[in-house]
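Students often ask why inverse folding is considered easier than folding. One informal answer: many sequences map to the same fold, so there is more than one right answer. In these notes we will look at a single instance of the problem. The structure comes first.
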C-alpha cells in the first residue's frame, strides 16, 4: 500500500505511540525468495495463559500472508519493543470465523467495520460473522512472555 513506508517510519520512531496501540511491524522471510519483508499490520491481543496471541486479518487477495501458511518464525515490533513469535496463516473458513469472533470479542467496537451486528450481549450475529470472514484470512502470532 502507498502509505506503508510512512507507517513503518512512524512505528520505528519515538513517535510510535501514535500508532502502536493496535499496529505493529511484522517481519518475515519469503518462502521462495528467502528475502526479508516487513509490513505494518493491525493486531488484536487475545491472552492464552503465559503466552499471548496476536490476531491479524488480511484480505485473501493480498499476498504477504502466504509466506506464513506453514507457520514461520517472525519478528514483531510492538510499541517500540522487539518480539520473536511463531506466526501461521489460517485459511480454513471455520477457523477464520472463529478467529474473527475472537477479534470482535476483544474489540467489539470494530464490528461495524466488518459489517457485523452484535446482539445485546455483545456476541456477533452468526450469519454476519460468516459473511464477513469469507474474504479474509487470519494470521495468528504466538509470542512468549519473557
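Output (designed amino acids):
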Amino acid at each position: 500500500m502507498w502509505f506503508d513506508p510512512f507507517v513503518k517510519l512512524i512505528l520505528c520512531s519515538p513517535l510510535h505511540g501514535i500508532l502502536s496501540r493496535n499496529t505493529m511491524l511484522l517481519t518475515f522471510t519469503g518462502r521462495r525468495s528467502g528475502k526479508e519483508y516487513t509490513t505494518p499490520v493491525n493486531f488484536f491481543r487475545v491472552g492464552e495463559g503465559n503466552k499471548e496471541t496476536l490476531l491479524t486479518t488480511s484480505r485473501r487477495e493480498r499476498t504477504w500472508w502466504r509466506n506464513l501458511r506453514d507457520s514461520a518464525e517472525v519478528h514483531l515490533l510492538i510499541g517500540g519493543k522487539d518480539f520473536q513469535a511463531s506466526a501461521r496463516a489460517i485459511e480454513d473458513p471455520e477457523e477464520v470465523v472463529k478467529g474473527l469472533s475472537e477479534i470482535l470479542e476483544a474489540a467489539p467496537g470494530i464490528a461495524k467495520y466488518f459489517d457485523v451486528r452484535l446482539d445485546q450481549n455483545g456476541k456477533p450475529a452468526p450469519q454476519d460473522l460468516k459473511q464477513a470472514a469469507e474474504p479474509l484470512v487470519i494470521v495468528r502470532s504466538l509470542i512468549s512472555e519473557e
